[in-house]
Structure formats: C-alpha cells, structure tokens
Amino acid sequence: MQPKTVTAGVLEIAYLEFGAPDGWPCIMGHGFPYDVHAYAETATLIAQSGARVLVPSLRGYGGTRFLSDKTLRSGEQAALGADLLAFMDALKIERAMVGGYDWGGRAACVVSALHPERVVGLVSGNSYNIQNIARSMEPASPPEEAALWYQYLFHNERGRRALERNRRGFARQLWSMWSPTWAFDDATFDRSAAAFDNPDFVDVVIHSYRHRYALVEGDPAYAAIEAQLAMQPPIRVPTIAIDGDHDGVIRGTAHHAHKFEGSFERRVFNGAGHNLPQERPAEWAQAVLDLRKAANR
C-alpha cells in the first residue's frame, strides 16, 4: 500500500495504491462517512490477482485538497463524477474497472453512465446511485424516511453546527446504525475518522445533502453534467450490483435493475450492512474479479 497524491482537475487528490504499477487498473471509491481504509483488505486481495488498485480520497476527505480557495466546496454528484474522470486523466488511465458504494459508488455510476468508453466494468454498492433530484421531494415509506434523519438535520444550520462540533460522533452513530452486525473496534473507526478532519469536510457534506434535495445551487462548472444526470441515463457497461441484507440506510435495490441495459447481476451479501467492502472484503474482491473476467471474454 502506497499513499500518493496527484493534481486532478480542481483537486490535489490523495490516494492509496496497491499492486504493481503495470497491473490492470481498478479504481474503488469510498462513501460518507468512511474513507480509503474501507478498501485496505479488499484492495490487497484484488491486487494479488494482478491489478493496480487505486483508492482516492473524495473531495473533503483525508489528504485531498482543493487547489483554489475560490472553488465552491460542492458535494454534488456531478462534481464527484468529474473528480473521478479527472483522476483517471491525471494518471493517464484510459479504461478501468471502477466501483464503490455510497458517494464513491455514485461517482462510479456517473462515469459509467456518461463515459462508458472509459469503463471496463462497474461494481456498485446499492446499484443505481445517480440521484433523481427532480423527484427528491417525493416521500418514501416511513421506515425509509426515518433512516434519512441525518440528511434532514443537515438541511439547516443546526445540523451544520452539529457536524462541525462532533464529526466523529456523527460518523460513529451512522456506522453503528447502518451496519448493525459489524463489530468494528475503536482502532478501525479511529483510522478512518482522521479523514473527517479535512478542513473542507463539513462544507462538502452539507452541500451534498442540500443539493440532492434542490435546496442549494450547484457549482456552475458542473451544470452541464447535472443536466445529463437529470435525464437518469441508463448504465450500459457490465455491472455487478451489491446490497447488504442488513443495510440500515438502503433497504434493497432489486427495483433498480431496469436502469442497467448491459450485462447485469445483483448480489446480496448475507449479514452485511452498508460498508460493503470493509465488512465483506473477500466477497467484494471476488465480485470485481468475476466481473473483469466476464467483461474481457
């Protein structure tokens, strides 16, 4: 495992690299509120099969920094997708296996939908992660609404202050609620929690959870991408979608299957919650390897 940085788009992106530099490229993205260590074991397993595995810290996390103070600290989906594409360009990666869950899965879905020529295959936690912002005010079932309490808190300034004052407390609460069967220890949490000390973490998180409900404007630099995403484009690259049957925030995504128009398989990790690659590293790694094999036939 090698920590590195690269200038990519509007960011200096910090990332971990596993495996040989000439291995087949595989890029995995973490979510909120997690970090690159979610893939420590998974990436090692994938690298053992000849991959060059890259795990970037998202904007607002870990060692990733904005190049300019003037750049909007946006957490919108278009920005995440643009960051992933810029990361690939900066490292001169033409095509890669991509994947992730939560925010990282959203970035991978955005690139897969809009730039399929850059993607060998997609492993997506919780299937189709592209937000339908136009329908964001349509209510879900009471249990689903209850699981989103943190998002609604972040819609007001009380939520911003709460996150600013207790980043680790909020993250630990969500880890426990979203992965009720995962017995993580203090050392595991603390290793990831250091990523939330990033100076842009709160601004990026708050913007993300407000933008997805159309409560704030996005960065004009990504307006064209957001317009494309508003059309809810299908994903046509080979895909394996994964759910955990004990996920405390996403209650299954079998109904997303129609959004995938290429080779598609859905897997359910028994006993797993939301942090799929860290809870089930061997199973996640196997999904990546199975998909690559199928995509290259």
List the helices and strands and how they pair.
Blueprint: E1 2-8, E2 11-18, E3 24-29, H1 40-47, E4 51-56, E5 65-66, H2 77-90, E6 96-100, H3 102-114, E7 119-125, H4 142-147, H5 149-153, H6 157-165, H7 167-178, H8 186-193, H9 201-211, H10 223-229, E8 239-244, E9 264-269, H11 276-279, H12 281-295
Parallel strand pairs: 3-4, 3-6, 6-7, 7-8, 8-9
Antiparallel strand pairs: 1-2, 2-4, 2-5
**Mean of pLDDT:** 97
Oligomer: single chain
Unreliable spans are none
Query: What is the H-and-E element order?
Result: EEEHEEHEHEHHHHHHHEEHH
User: What is the approximate shape?
Assistant: globular
Main beta-sheet annotation: 9 strands, mixed
Structural class: alpha/beta
State the end-to-end CA separation. 30 Å
Q: What is the tally of helical segments?
A: 12
Beta-strand content bin = 15-25%
Proportion of helical residues: 25-40%
Give an overview in words.
- By secondary structure, the chain is α/β, with parallel strands linked by helices.
- 38% of the residues lie in helices and 18% in strands.
- The protein contains 12 helices and 9 strands.
- Strands 1, 2, 3, 4, 5, 6, 7, 8 and 9 form a 9-stranded mixed β-sheet that branches.
- Helix 1 runs parallel beside helix 12 and helix 6 packs across helix 7 (167-178).
- It is globular, with a radius of gyration of 17 Å.
- The model has no long low-confidence stretch (mean pLDDT 97).
